[in-house]
Amino acid sequence: TGFDSDNSSGDFSEANHKSPEMLDLDPHQSNRNGKHNGETEIQENGIKRHRTSLPAPMFSRSDFSVWSILKKCIGLELSKITMPIVFNEPLSFLQRITEYMEHIYLINKACSHADPLERMQAVAAFAVSAVASQWERTGKPFNPLLGETYELTREDLGFRFISEQVSHHPPISAFYSEGLNKDFIFHGSIYPKLKFWGKSIEAEPRGTITLELLKHNEAYTWTNPTCCVHNVIIGKLWLEQYGVVEIVNHSTGDKCVLNFKPCGLFGKELHRVEGYIQDKHRKKLCVIYGKWTECLWCTDPTTYETYKKSEKRGGEPKKKSVSEEDIKSENDEADDMPEVQDTVQFIPGSKLLWRINCRPPNSSQMYNFTSFAVSLNELEKGMEAILAPTDCRLRPDIRNMENGNMDVASKEKERLEEKQRAARKERAKDEVEWHTRWFHQGTNPYTGTPDWLYSGGYFDRNFSDCPDIY
């Protein structure tokens, strides 16, 4: 919303990190002098306030069985399986990728730090925060159509973002973002491999994510953890992230190794993240711990080891005090989900790197969207005139679903998929290859692996040769 993250350049702490509900806005500074499309408002200081709710509440999935569709798909690649629209959320996967930018203040912090260790800490926190919006998001984003794009410019947050669906089989999404102050570049390509394993759906991450801090001439690369949705046959759906994420600073040789732990038999490790930062000589510089659904802390290795030894000897672990809302979210797990009563155990002397934003009060009726996600499909007055005709906001199936017109949305989804199949057959018949518009295949300059790189020119807004996909 422009106020959903702490964008201050000062040190991050619980004292100065405020959620949207906690912000104290001076009424004399927040007088509204203009509106767009009935919801988007412009304040006196020129900062736009984006919408805070969707046009219609979430459609109930209680009368539908995922198992009826997936029982024939065990072990198969799910990208080719057509799912009923009721299991979707009204966002394209390209818009879901854009949610990486929700905690952009962490990139700004990394840019502002002179110490490379503090920069790596901020980048590690950003990498964890990038998956935090997925918490309780069990709806499936719409598969982007080949050639589909999404752009987002947030002057209040200091970035602009462009993505394109560059391949349909396998599905590959490429993205590029840059700071409006020319301080960073964030780019990558993502092609998760989805598989159904009887009781769960697993998304194995593929593709490299790269963050360049231009002021410091540094580049960081990493790959996201594996995401798994449980209880797809019966019970309440729940999500976990697991796997090892390695963040490499290609300029200094420093590396951050983060272990997203699987929940285990009794759920003791559910949502936990633990890792360390080491220099090029493999000396541990600091330890990072927390939960990707809650917060992330760091401390020095000696303090951490001393604490762990004390814990093994039966010492009483100290816990960080939490709000009633935090406790409620931890205790309200479903009966068939591993029960986790405790929050992150706070080690004295630790520094807070990141804390998740509070979600809107009506988030559960809006597909568990964050405030940032709620704004992504907003179509403001005059926007259609400048958007590329391939932009997600113009997709009729997503727009109708957002507005609560499920029958129309379902028919539009089928129409678009059939149109895409017909176009593919026509190209095959004429032996014409598909050409991407804004990205091209190349090599990641830091990892040496194949990647999709931004070709430039999108914001010149010459959309005359964009394909007709809607």
TrEMBL record:
Species of the source: Ploceus nigricollis
Family matches, as InterPro entries: OSBP_sf (IPR037239), Oxysterol-bd (IPR000648), Oxysterol-bd_CS (IPR018494)
Lineage: Eukaryota, Metazoa, Chordata, Craniata, Vertebrata
GO molecular function, one term: cholesterol binding
Basic and acidic residues bias locations: 14-29, 308-331
Keywords, alphabetical: Coiled coil, Lipid transport, Lipid-binding, Transport
Keyword DNA damage: no
GO cellular component: cytosol; perinuclear endoplasmic reticulum; plasma membrane
Membrane recorded as keyword: no
Coiled coil: 399-433
Family: Belongs to the OSBP family.
Name of encoding gene: Osbpl2
Protein name: Oxysterol-binding protein
